[in-house]
Design a protein that fits this description.
The chain is built from three helices and five strands. The protein is an alpha/beta fold.
């Protein structure tokens, strides 16, 4: 866990974001950068996945994890539609960081996984360690 991608992203944010910047993180807190390491920023954790709310609130930055993105939902899921819009060209956001620390060794190399309907069985536990973290920035802030 010493090289978990969440720790790298926390450090990156401290070096690249400004105090008072607004960011919304999507997903379950334990799979995202730790809020207590981001006291300088205005942080919201959102679990509703409503694109209209995102447009209305318009945070400067959005943080997502590989455990909550297009890879983890099927097209029949409402959350899948949220991520299609978020990563689309018309969202108003641009990816500025996508990071997953590569392990020194990995006896059980897992290269991706397939989305299934039941979230309980989506990824197993191994993909929850060191998830890929993506940060998007509002285009008018670039």
């Amino acid at each position: 866990m010493h090289q978990d991608s969440r720790y790298y992203v926390e450090n990156w944010m401290q070096q690249n974001l400004q105090p008072g910047d607004t960011l919304t993180m999507y997903g379950i807190e334990r799979y995202l950068p730790r809020e207590n390491k981001m006291a300088d920023f205005e942080v919201t954790v959102d679990k509703t996945f409503e694109f209209e709310d995102l447009v209305r609130e318009s945070p400067q930055y959005i943080v997502t994890t590989s455990l909550m993105n297009l890879n983890t939902y099927t097209p029949s899921s409402p959350n899948w539609s949220f991520f299609v819009q978020l990563y689309g060209d018309d969202s108003g956001y641009e990816t500025i960081l996508k990071h997953q620390t590569k392990p020194i060794w990995n006896l059980l190399y897992l290269d991706g996984y397939e989305a299934i309907e039941n979230p309980r069985y989506r990824t197993g536990n191994l993909n929850k360690i060191n998830p890929e973290i993506t940060i998007l920035k509002r285009r008018d802030e670039l």
